[in-house]
Design a protein that fits this description.
Distance between the termini of chain B: 77 Å
Helix content of chain B: 40-55%
Helix content of chain A: 40-55%
Number of strands of chain A: 10
Number of strands of chain B: 7
Strand order of the largest sheet of chain B: 1-7-6-5-4-3-2
Structural class of chain A: alpha+beta
CATH superfamily of the largest domain in chain B: START domain
Largest sheet of chain A: 5 strands, mixed
Strand content of chain A: 5-15%
Number of helices of chain B: 8
Shape of chain A: elongated
Oligomer: heterodimer
CATH topology of the largest domain in chain B: Alpha-D-Glucose-1,6-Bisphosphate, Chain A, domain 4
Strand content of chain B: 15-25%
Number of domains of chain B: 2
Order of helices and strands of chain A: HHHHHHHHEEHEEHEEHEEEE
Distance between the termini of chain A: 62 Å
CATH architecture of the largest domain in chain B: 2-Layer Sandwich
Shape of chain B: elongated
CATH class of the largest domain in chain B: Alpha Beta
Order of helices and strands of chain B: HHHHHEHHEEEEEEH
Radius of gyration of chain A: 26 Å
């Protein structure tokens, strides 16, 4: 640049093959990574606000299958980004040992911002893969750490894009000197092919046609009680006895303290509705199923809470982060928001939430509360 | 700065990106019970350090070893296969180690995560090896065909060496147009339009060697790959001519993988074309 006596525009145009980095390669991979991390960040934010809605946001129940698409995309693009990130870091690694390590204040700032960018990007992909594999070699809570790291990484990415946008545009527009274009193309094609291999190897849990090839899928479609995979079993949630207790009553509490207690027989005597809705796990797998049960809005009407805007759905679980979930606004009133008694025409399996579970459109699976004990309208 | 950083862009990036990073840091600190800020910081720095000091050297060493054992033309294919197998192995590792297995929930992690990825890696390795072998074998396409024609050398050579006759005896060539002044001589250029393997091709040949009645050599730098075409004529007994047609070229990039198939198609086409040439020349009134 100006510091080296070379006009900025010509330095951008010729790339920077002099330091051993093939700029067009870095630019193409950077572009692909920008898209992948952009998609991951947007879909991750969506998952976050559904689970922790800020006061000004009411999660929309429709389209019912939106979350399975956004979360499937989140995991698939993150997986696809693994070879792209490793290829990118490989292409630019000669600059890691550039001498002198810091040539100016700006260069120092730029290099400093690479630490959260590289560390954050590697951590996000590593922790995402580990979470799907249910491997937790750390003490923090994965979603909170993954979410915080995402903001830090994306901030560092914005800094990096600012610094490199002009060079990327220049490198993509005209061929730079350096290795022959054929080698560049085959390198990029190889990285893209590896991305494709990883996506096919992992996506079978949500795209059933890929399942036979998905050697690393966390789930197999159709495998599980009643043909549906299970995230948390009744034994793991320690609700086996409470769920099987003949004295079980579903308690519905209205905003003024009105209460209704309904036995399983009472619930079955109420009007039943059917809905085909997916269970869509944050870990990327999803499966559609046919549910039958009582509409939440019908139950609320029994305690004079038909117009409730917030309903807390509590499980028989005594502890656990997901023992309760909120329904808000249109989610409360949706005709497919059910306390399900049946799955696929049979009573719910204990591991699917017997005696009743929440099933509602457009929600992450962890918010489809199982073994429901109480509905509290606010 | 290295030569690809724009100071103004960096300033804009800092203005927009630093608040985003600080928002993230603030969130991590506010949610310290769940995020364990000190441990998370160690993981973030550790991820970069382990990548740069462990993964990078290991990949570099493996790649260097593989590169030394791989012939140049096969390297793009071998590299792609190695990257795919390596990426698969990285992701497979926590699955294969069984960290997440849950005895009480058979629907979670239901597969054999050693056998499955091993089979997939084997399939990728096999496909890579086949493609690499094809690449090495197919690195040069060199197809020679010949025909004996019942006409004197001068007559055969005069007809075949005239590029404007090419559409008559080449089945694949639709048109041939002079791009320089006739007659044919060293330096002549001719534009051809042809069909080959279902594709329409337009390319220009240049005559690089011409000994009338003996040989003609022309080259193109266009088309599916750079190609050199040679005609030779030799008297074969009284009033007969042996003509050879040789096409030689080096396909570039991934076109190499298809080279053996291309050579076979070319050989079939050339035999047909020489037979056509013979029938035309032998039937020509003289």
């Amino acid at each position: 640049m100006t510091a080296t006596g070379v006009p900025a525009s010509s330095a951008l145009a010729r790339g920077d093959a002099a330091d051993g980095v093939d700029t067009p390669r870095a630019a193409w991979l950077g572009l692909a990574l920008g898209v992948a991390f952009g998609v991951c960040f947007a879909t991750g934010l969506w998952s976050h606000v559904l689970q922790h809605p800020p006061s000004w946001f009411t999660p929309p129940p429709r389209p019912a299958g939106l979350y399975r698409v956004t979360q499937g995309l989140h995991v698939a693009t993150g997986t696809a980004a693994i070879p792209l990130l490793l290829a990118k870091l490989w292409v630019v690694h000669p600059r890691l040992t550039a001498w002198p390590p810091v040539r100016s204040a700006l260069h120092g700032v730029e290099r400093l911002a690479l630490l959260p960018l590289v560390g954050g990007a590697v951590f996000l992909l590593l922790s995402g893969v580990a979470n799907v594999a249910r491997w937790y070699p750390w003490g923090f809570y994965f979603p909170a750490a993954h979410y915080g790291a995402a903001w830090i990484t994306v901030g560092a990415l914005v800094v990096h894009i600012g610094a490199k946008a002009a060079a990327t545009r220049a490198a993509l527009r005209r061929p730079a000197p350096g290795p022959p274009a054929g080698d560049r193309r085959s390198f990029l094609a190889g990285a893209a092919a590896a991305s494709g291999v990883l996506v096919v190897a992992t996506a079978g849990g949500t795209v059933p046609v890929l399942s036979p090839l998905s050697v690393l899928a966390q789930r197999r479609p159709g495998q599980g009680p009643q043909g549906l995979p299970v995230n948390k079993t009744a034994a793991a949630a320690r609700v086996v006895d409470a769920a099987r207790d003949p004295a079980y009553r579903l308690v519905v509490v209205g905003p003024g303290g009105e209460r209704a207690a309904l036995s399983l027989a009472d619930l079955r005597a109420l009007p039943q509705h059917e809905a085909t809705l997916p269970i869509a796990c944050v870990e990327g797998w999803s499966a559609s199923a046919s549910w039958r049960g009582v509409r939440v809005r019908d139950l609320l009407a029994r305690v004079g809470a038909a117009g409730a805007d917030v309903v807390v759905v509590e499980s028989l679980q005594r502890t656990g982060r997901y023992r309760a979930s909120d329904l808000r606004g249109a989610q409360v009133r949706d005709r497919d928001t059910l306390l399900a008694l049946d799955l696929g025409g049979e009573p719910l399996d204990l591991d699917h939430g017997f005696p009743v579970r929440l099933i509602a459109p457009g929600r992450p699976g962890v918010l489809q509360t199982k073994w429901v004990a109480r509905l509290v309208a606010r | 700065m290295n030569g690809t950083t724009s100071p103004r862009g960096l300033a804009v990036g800092l203005a927009l990106g630093v608040p985003v990073m600080l928002f993230g840091v603030r969130g991590v600190l506010l949610d310290a019970r769940d995020t364990h800020p000190a441990e998370l910081a160690r993981w973030l720095v550790g991820a970069a350090v382990v990548h740069d000091l462990v993964l990078l050297p290991v990949v570099g060493a493996l790649g260097w070893g593989l590169r030394r054992r791989t012939p140049d033309p096969a390297w793009p294919v071998v590299r792609a296969g190695a990257v795919a197998v390596g990426a698969l192995a990285l992701v497979a590792w926590p699955y294969a180690a069984g960290y997440g297995a849950s005895a009480g929930n058979p629907s979670l992690l239901p597969r054999d995560y050693v056998l499955g990825p091993a089979l997939a890696a084997g399939v990728i390795a096999a496909v890579t090896a086949i493609a690499a072998a094809a690449t090495v074998r197919g690195v040069e396409v060199d197809v020679v065909t010949e025909v004996v024609i019942d006409r004197p050398v001068g007559e055969v050579a005069a007809y075949a060496a005239d590029p404007t006759n090419a559409p008559e005896w080449y089945d694949n060539i639709d048109s041939a147009t002079w791009a320089s002044d006739p007659p044919v001589q060293v330096g002549s250029r001719v534009a051809f339009v042809a069909r080959f393997l279902g594709r329409r091709l337009a390319y220009a040949y240049e005559v690089v060697d011409l000994v009338p009645g003996e040989r003609l050599v022309m080259r193109t730098a266009q088309g599916p790959f750079p190609m050199e075409t040679t005609y030779t004529w030799r008297a074969e007994g009284e009033g007969r001519t042996r003509m050879t047609l040789r096409n030689r070229g080096r396909p570039a990039g991934f076109a190499r993988v298809g080279a053996p198939m291309m050579a076979a198609a070319m050989r079939r086409a050339n035999r047909r074309d020489l037979a056509k040439l013979r029938s035309i020349v032998e039937e020509a009134p003289c």
